[in-house]
Amino acid sequence: MMRFILVMSIMTTLLPASDLDAAREHYRQAVAAAFGIAAAKITVQPVHVGLPDNPYEPLQTGDLFALRADWPGADPGPAGFASAKGQVAFAKHPDKVKTLLLACEVRDEKKMLPLDDIVRRLAWVYRGAGEPVEGANHKAHVVRDETGVTVVYYVRQAGQTGAIRFQSVTVQLKVDGTCVTRIEKVNAELP
Q1: CB-based contacts of 125: which residues, under 8 Å, 6+ apart?
Q2: Which residues of the chain have pLDDT under 50?
Q3: Is 0.90 surpassed by the pTM of this model?
Q4: How far is CA 1 from CA 5, 15, 67, in A?
Q5: What pLDDT score was predicted for residue 102?
Q6: CA nearest neighbour of 44 among 93, 78, 9
Q7: Which residue, among 156, 150, 180, has the nearest Cα to 168 in the 3D structure?
């Protein structure tokens, strides 16, 4: 009887208990591969769901859960998204945020999430770039052309000296399926 309980205990720790658990494991493995870290050292947030003011839940997009990976020396670590099916999106992933952009339906103007919601999700992934802001001549926008779909938004980043700089974040999903991100300094001051 004791062996049966031990075997069942081991089996239940190996099997994901929910879609979130499966997504967390896929994210852990993808981050471990991208950063060359042992997966066992990585903790994927959220560990406890249903807490008040949980920043992860409002960002969920379709099957994609908002996640963050932490390990000794990288806390907070990379933020991104993953699904129980193994779809993963984060800045250093080989496909970048392609999975996220597809889940946001950016290729279809009629089905696309509101731009503010897309920017909030991209800002989660590229949070190191700064906090999203808008100015009179610097508003988030989407461009669709023969090269693909491009989402552009602007961020404010405070430096350690208190200096503030403004940057544009440009994320393009090309027609061939590749995803490219550029973060560049904005020459004009935003209000």
Answers
A1: 79, 80, 81, 89, 90, 91, 97, 100
A2: 1-15
A3: no
A4: 6, 21, 39
A5: 97
A6: 78
A7: 156
